[in-house]
């Protein structure tokens, strides 16, 4: 069984327990950032959902990109709408695999399609895209999809959320070969079904790879469905602001006691090697 399929099976019951609703019904706000965000689609990138600031003209500077794999590899691009809207509200383009309320499952190839499109498109919502600042990230099964982008030179950072390689063999074949880019893990504590996987992966990273491992005791479901994505949404936007926008004013959340004060149990390695 492929890793992505296995993770999809593990989380399918949890995913089906919460019926998916349209974005407008699920979201308490348009994000906490300076650019209230929305979701949209682009005919040039079918089967994807794009989260962007509502007023692109108001965005100061260029917009980095976060390509996202949904939990359970769900093809519903609204699955983590609150969380992705929060990221976009800080001046990012977040691209979720799968269209709004689409049925079925995603693949790692769909995430690569997001990277390809963001790297080449310069019109519409991509008029201010920073194609040199792309991160691959995902929750659970989506995190496994993000791992498959690790060797893409266009990907500058990885975000592994409640996820990890499904076996020690998978870890040995993937994780030690990640070089030259930060890898941050956002896990749900010992009750998270991906806890052991994520912790094993974090410890298997090669020396010199900037990495951080945070555990919030909320289990595998994280806080993605909370208003603005809850504490996972806050930690994610701070991470991407630091490593993709070069905003060192937020780095102390990870290098200091900010995350711990927010309830995370933290491990970290070589954060001084992050280049912004």
UniProtKB/TrEMBL annotation:
InterPro entries: AB_hydrolase_fold
Gene3D superfamilies: alpha/beta hydrolase (3.40.50.1820)
Signal peptide residues on this chain, from the entry's feature table: 1-17
Segments passing through the bilayer: none
Entry annotated with the keyword Signal: yes
Transferase in keyword set: no
Record's keyword terms, sorted: Signal
Protein name in UniProt: Alpha/beta-hydrolase
Species of the source: Westerdykella ornata
